[in-house]
Amino acid sequence: MFLLCVSVLYANDSFITSLEYGKMLYENPRGVGCMECHGRYGEGERIAKYTHKKQAKIIEAPRINNVEFKSFKIALQEGKRVMPKYYLTADEIAAIYEYLQAVKKEQE
Length: 108
Ligand code: HEC
Hints:
Layout: H1 2-15, H2 18-27, H3 34-38, E1 45-52, E2 55-61, H4 69-78, H5 90-107
Antiparallel strand pairs: 1-2
Bound molecules: heme C (HEC).
Heme C is lined by residues 29, 32, 34, 36-38, 47, 61-62, 64, 67, 71-72, 75-76, 80-84, 86, 96.
């Protein structure tokens, strides 16, 4: 019985591919989901529009499915002005990156 459980667990585990893992992390990292700001496929999105001293201001999250892995990783590890800092491991960052590259190809 124990052996059976182990093998079932193991089988379930391999059901989730690294792409699914990346998707899961993109939508639900430990913090605000990336898609809330960067859009469903990392295509970039307008976050807010407001007026300051009679000037229209727009805050946008950039497109992130076309950046190099190196800057992608740095942005995530250091955080940015608007973007929150995330505490993702190198593997998690790589999984998100791969997921974005894969969905980008699907769209093209
Ligand atoms: C609250 C909105 C918000 C969330 C949530 C968010 N970002 Fe960002 N992100 C931004 C903004 C805005 C920038 C542009 C830099 C700045 O002003 O902070 C940015 C910049 C980036 C960059 C740098 C792009 C470049 O051209 O160098 C990457 C990569 C990135 N985000 C990936 C992610 C990933 C992956 C997640 C989820 C783990 C995420 N972001 C979550 C708003 C967000």
